[in-house]
Amino acid sequence: TRVLVLNGPNLGRLGRRQPEIYGSTTHDELVEMCRSWGHELGLDVEVRQTNHEGVMLDWLNAAADEQTPVVLNAAAWTHYSWAIYDACAQLAAPLVEVHISAPSTRPEEWRHTSVVTPHAARVIEGHGLEGYRMALETIAGR
Ligand code: DQA
């Protein structure tokens, strides 16, 4: 099974961006980790990151057309993008929402809502990068 792992804004700086919150592993390393976790689970995993909302919408629309399962960390868009909400609403295959930190318990009120959650089969937050493995396991049906 092909699976898309889609990462939103600022996640390209993983490892350098607020490491006290997001850890010291880079996005390139996350790509390798997801690919090897996928391999163990019999999944063909493709990891992408963009800072451009329209690019993310195009990827989600293609995933809807192709009925591809999606692991989505929409980063800050999670909290306010109705376009991401609409794009997630039309997905046909399972969608798993992932956050490295636990936005629902962070001090900023605006992090406490998610436009992705209503459409997600599962929400994983606060498990660091391990959350991506948990999301892939969910999609693999484990
Ligand atoms: C995040 C949490 C969001 O609130 C934040 O805007 C991010 C990353 C996470 O993975 O913990 O950019 O999605």
TrEMBL record:
InterPro entries tied to this protein: DHquinase_II (IPR001874), DHquinase_II_CS (IPR018509), DHquinase_II_sf (IPR036441)
Record EC number: 4.2.1.10
Pathway, per record: Metabolic intermediate biosynthesis; chorismate biosynthesis; chorismate from D-erythrose 4-phosphate and phosphoenolpyruvate: step 3/7
Active site: Y22, H99
Residues annotated for substrate binding in this entry: N73, H79, D86, I100, S101, R111
SUPFAM superfamilies tied to this protein: Type II 3-dehydroquinate dehydratase (SSF52304)
Record keywords: Amino-acid biosynthesis, Aromatic amino acid biosynthesis, Lyase
Keyword Lyase (UniProt): yes
Reaction(s) catalysed by this chain's protein: 3-dehydroquinate = 3-dehydroshikimate + H2O
Nucleotide-binding recorded as keyword: no
General function of this protein: Catalyzes a trans-dehydration via an enolate intermediate.
Assigned protein family: Belongs to the type-II 3-dehydroquinase family.
Oligomeric and partner information: Homododecamer.
Protein name: 3-dehydroquinate dehydratase
Organism for this UniProt entry: Nocardioides panacihumi
Taxonomic lineage from the root: Bacteria, Bacillati, Actinomycetota, Actinomycetes, Propionibacteriales
Gene behind this protein: aroQ_2
